[in-house]
Design a protein that fits this description.
single chain; 10 helices; about 60% helix
Length: about 260
């Protein structure tokens, strides 16, 4: 029994190490690139009167720490699928199955994230989520600035999804990459993506969506879409209005505009 457990551990560790190393590399690489772009466009800062950069080193330390959990969840999901320790087998990888399961996974994750996020805002669990909300003005470095329990609640999707959904491993990895880039941009604090596609009647969102969650706390709990927030009445009442302001800013290069309510 002990030998079998050791064999499993030795098989798992290289996968975990690779997942952690790639996650950390992408964290710093994506953050650096976005900061270079943002520095050239100060007028795009959403919270003009706040500077989240002063927390940068605290956010980096917390993120490097919490990524141990994120990498563990992803590596665990990959390992379970490789071993066949799931309730359903992954679909054969084709263009159609990849597109289908990516869409299913994104929708399932957004649902998980919304309700898990709401749960972390309850008085019993908020102490595990408080670290993330110390970044009132989020930055690219605050994406993973989480307590380990908080990180597990949000990222454990990658661990259990492969058990009940027929997600091929490459699709799970692409989903994780999408989540990384979406999350880093979403925490950047700079709005470059506002458009009619990121406000009603579209379910898509832009950077303003999650930035409002950090600045006003009780709104905008979802990740990729506004669907659950609109259905459950947790959408920020100023969200669509603020998106329109940044749409206009995008049409007037060089004009400095402060978003409403900021």
């Amino acid at each position: 029994m002990l030998d079998q457990a050791l064999t499993i551990l030795l098989e798992f560790l290289p996968i975990y190490a690779a997942c952690y190393a790639i996650n950390v590399f992408l964290y710093f690489a994506t953050g650096w690139v976005l900061v270079q772009i943002q520095n050239r466009h100060p007028e795009r800062r959403i919270q003009q009167h706040r500077r989240g950069e002063k927390r940068m080193w605290k956010e980096i330390r917390a993120s490097v720490y919490s990524l141990t959990v994120t990498a563990g969840c992803l590596a665990g999901g990959i390992f379970l699928s490789m071993k066949g320790w799931t309730l359903v087998a992954p679909l054969e990888l084709t263009w159609w199955s990849a597109i289908l399961m990516f869409a299913v996974s994104i929708i399932a994750f957004d649902t998980w994230f919304y309700w898990g996020h709401r749960l972390m805002h309850t008085k019993y669990l908020y102490r595990f989520h408080a670290e993330h909300h110390r970044s009132v003005a989020p930055t690219v470095w605050s994406t993973y600035s989480d307590d380990l329990v908080d990180a597990f609640v949000m990222q454990s999707y990658y661990l259990w999804a492969v058990i009940i959904l027929p997600i091929p491993i490459p699709v799970l990895i692409v989903h994780r990459l999408w989540d990384h880039f979406n999350g880093t941009i979403g925490h950047s604090g700079f709005e470059f993506w506002a458009s009619p596609m990121s406000r009603m009647p579209s379910p898509m969102v832009c950077v303003t969506f999650h930035d409002q969650h950090h600045s006003r706390f009780k709104y905008n709990f979802a990740n990729f879409f506004s669907f659950w927030d609109r259905v459950c009445g947790t959408i920020d009442p100023k969200y669509d209005e603020q998106v329109k302001v940044f749409e206009k800013l995008g049409q007037k290069d060089g004009v400095k505009t402060t978003a409403p309510g900021e």
